[in-house]
Amino acid sequence: MSFEAQYIKYKQLFSGELSKMDKIILDAVSPREELKTPLLNFLNSPSKRIRPVLAMLYLKALEFEISEDIVKLLSAVEIIHNASLVHDDIIDESEFRRGDKTLSQRFGNKLGVIAGDYLLSLAMGIISNLGDVEILREFSATLKQMCLGEINQNFDLFKIGTIENYIEKSQNKTAYLFKSAIVSPLILSKKSEEIIERASDFALNFGVAFQIRDDLINITKSDHSKPYGNDIAEGIYNAPVIYAGGVENLPEGIEKTRILLNNYVEKALLSLEKLPNNDYKTLLVNLTELNKDV
Question: Which CATH number fits domain 3-292: 1.10.600.10, 2.40.50.140, 3.40.50.300, 1.10.287.70?
Fold first, then answer.
């Protein structure tokens, strides 16, 4: 079974929590009507919600109850992710997102930038209302890394970098928000540094694996719901191009990238070993292994 088909079952496990998240997001959005409806349509359009689902799986494997405050935190994570997509669409000059016109295509780049910033302000408002400075520091650091990932990618366009730089970019653009999704509820619950460190290791390795998989899909088009081939055309040279030494010998680069992906999946699985043995840990292991499905 494919990643997408299996993942639908994982989402169903947390349908109640995801519905609560949707309401929190809905209630938070309140600009004037001309922007409100398109913004809500964008936020409510079909998406994986993989960061909150992964976090809830991890927390349940730790035998946590998903409290209202944790649902609020994960709502903020999802808003931040969507804000990054609004900004990405401006950077990439994308016309469509999730089957509809992007906000920047609909309203122009100026309002698109403000809309993305507005979403970030909503997320930080939700987080700050929880009254935990350590969580604020966690998300502030993640937002900085996400910006650095985009800045560095911009200056590296059409350049064949190193795998080390590629991994750093994958951590910045993708993995750190996975980390905040899983770690912030643990910080809120005053868990030990050891537990937080193990959770952080898992999230970063899972996040890098998730990004590598996404980059492979962009070249191999094994997932028809995602854009195809635009990374190379736009000068974003990811692992397959780096391993191939250019855009000419991609099959070799793709094969080496699959090995890299498997390595990060194995690192993520290793980080799960000390979790209690229960059904949620089994589901978490299975979901992690599904990253190899590409």
Answer: 1.10.600.10
